[in-house]
Specification:
By secondary structure, the protein is an alpha/beta fold. The chain has 16 helices and 26 strands. The strands form six sheets. Strands 10-9-13-14-16-15-17-18-21-22-23-24 form a twelve-stranded mixed sheet, with helices on both faces. Strand 7 and strand 8 form a beta hairpin. Helix 2 crosses helix 3 (286-297), helix 4 (314-334) crosses helix 6 (353-359) and helix 9 (434-443) runs parallel beside helix 16 (643-652). The protein is globular and about 95 Å long.
Length: 677
Amino acid sequence: MSSAPDLVTAGDALVEVSVPRTVPHQRVRVDLDGRDVTDVFQWDAQRRVLVGVVEGMEMGDNVITARPPGAGRAGDSLTVVNHPDEGPLFSGPHEEPFICETDRFTLPVVGGTLGDPLDEDCSVQDRVDYFYRTTADTYETWPTGATAYPEDLATTTTTEGVEVPFIVRMETGTANRGIFQHTTLHDPLTEPEPSPVERGAGWNGKLVYTLGGGCAGGWFRQGSSTGGVTDAWMLGQGYALASSSLNVFGQNCSDLLTSETAQMTKEEFLQRYGRDEFTIGFGCSGGSYQAHQAADNYPGIFDGIVVGCSFPEVGFGTVNFITDARLLDHYFSGATGWTEEQQRKVTGFQTLATMSNVAGGAQRIDPRVFCPSVLPEELRYDPETNPGGARCDVYDHTVNVYGTDPETGFALRPLDNGGIQYGLKALQDGTITVDQFLDLNDGVGGFDQDGGFQEARTEADLPAVAAAYRTGRLTNGGGGLASTPIVDYRAYFDDAPNGDIYVRYHTNSMRERLREANGSVVNHVSLLEDRRYGLFSTGSPLLQHGFTQMDAWLSGLDLEGERPTLEEIGAARPEALVEGCQTREEDPTFVAETLDRNPDGTCEQLYPSASFPREVAGESVRADVIDCQTTAPRREDYPQMSDAQWTRLGEVFAEDVCDYTVPGVEQQGLAGTWLRF
């Protein structure tokens, strides 16, 4: 019950044995490869199952057999496949070097670090700590050896209507070379140790898996924090929280590794507390990358997701957006005769400041810029002094999927801007002149293999392009997301005075990919408000509403057995979960409205969704074309040009222009879910 039978790790697994009513449960015998393990099982009378954590498995295949009483009765057997606690499980060979950070990982509330690792896989001994919520709404460490409640101990009432002491049990350990933590309400004075059979009074049976943000610097390291397991609002309602240091994208910017880590961390939780009713993936920014891609590519890890400040994925929805911005920023810094409004219309952004704001982050494709501070200088790549060193970029961090260039050993790159007509719509609507359009596209250039500027456009490695589509590195939406309820909460930052990466286009992009893949977006609900509560705070009543309605949504679905269909998800969607936006007054009201970019909509007028460079160049809002098919330019698609200008257009686009009416080069569907590398 803690994993699929062929995805067991660390030599143990939570196992259930269903016992027919004709068989006395106390006479059932269970063995592991012939060794009697019956004593680890307890009887769950309500569900008529024996439940236990079976330990001591060998690497590889193991056979668990349950036998009814009576000589010669074979019973039933299950083969399970055990994998190392340090992984890998399905993500492929480990990244090297890998820097342990157990001595930098500060334990929330209780303080202190985990000390030195026990081995080269950065392992630590599991530990349990307690802390409590005070009547002053702060956390304090649980007193050592306490035999009575502290005078300032608060109580809380869970979603099940049970009032319990607000005491939190936090377990910390390592799995998949990451540091995991999980928390839940538990009273050490009155309740026994947590068990897979007996649920404590404070846990409502539901798990929230928190996913941390970032990306830049997220490679070659274990990480020194998790996605957060101390949120008082969630814990106070009885939810359990879990996360790992490799589920913070600023420490691990690989959705493949994050899915694997979430699977293994959830396995640890289920072995301690027993099966959950459902798991909600919860995260903003880099956390939304993880939620979208884990749900789509490894369905079942999360049953529903609540995302904020969202992006479809890092490698395309974000990287193409910010690398285009960097090219444009670089071009405009040396160009003359351009007004700020002309530049803004070429980018498509709500505010021009967004262009330079996001341009710096584009250097996550440069293997030299965003190396984490814990990675020693002597281990880092340098084209002159250390060409074989660690390359700190999104592509080399995904090398198990993309493969390598046989000449350089560097990861292949699914990055391309050939044929893109930057500023096309700004030309067509008369904002920029023909000569400005030609100059821009003649001079915008691309990126070399180290992410530096070059005169030529960037050319993708086609095997990596195909792999990105087939394996879900570009989020398809038609895998597990087709059976996953999604609440997308967005605090509006498009009009931030200094610009911002968290723009509405990303939510629109994900929604249209879902529509393209599934023919419906009934499982996707968007909630929008201003930024008075920051990016993604459970202090926002709108976000709280979205979260509690996700609980209600999942509670109305049958999550046993086959995954729900879109029709079932749509039928189970709570009436109170209505798409729309909060107005921008001091005392806002909610506007129930489909958030579909309709310029006449109230929400669209309050929060314009704007655009992005490739949509201005003719791509759809899905932003799912990595390398466009090209076609010869047609004169009728452009404003009036002189013969000299038309000739120059042919020279600028000597290999023709993007044709977004047809699929991109190597664009294809998923090869499947639960892929292994």
